[in-house]
Amino acid sequence: MSLAALFGFGSVIFLIVMTGAFVYGMTSLRAAADRDSYRPGSSKN
């Protein structure tokens, strides 16, 4: 495999992994906000 092919393959894997980590982080933040029943911009106290 050429270096360019390896770099392209690694970039794709990196993007997939980082997208999954971002979605997981957003989901856990959402769960924490729901647990505290706090939503930014809502009129609930």
3D structure, described in words:
The chain is an all-alpha fold and 45 residues long. 73% of the residues lie in helices and 0% in strands. It is rod-shaped. The protein starts with a helix and ends in a 10-residue tail after the last helix.
Quick summary of this structure?
73% of the residues lie in helices and 0% in strands. With 45 residues, it is mainly α.
Tell me the quaternary state: single chain
Q: Gap between N and C termini, in Å?
A: 59 Å
Please, what is the average pLDDT?
A: 86
Question: Low-confidence parts, pLDDT < 50 over ≥5 residues?
Answer: none
**Gyration radius from CA atoms, angstroms:** 18 Å
Order of helices and strands: H
Question: Can you count the helices?
Answer: 1
Query: Helix amount, in percent?
Result: over 70%
Q: Sheet bearing the most strands, described?
A: none
Question: What is the overall shape?
Answer: rod-shaped
Structural class: mainly alpha
Give the tally of β-strands: 0
Bin the strand percentage: under 5%
Please specify the SSE layout and strand pairing:
Layout: H1 3-35
Features:
rod-shaped, mainly alpha, 45 residues, 1 helix
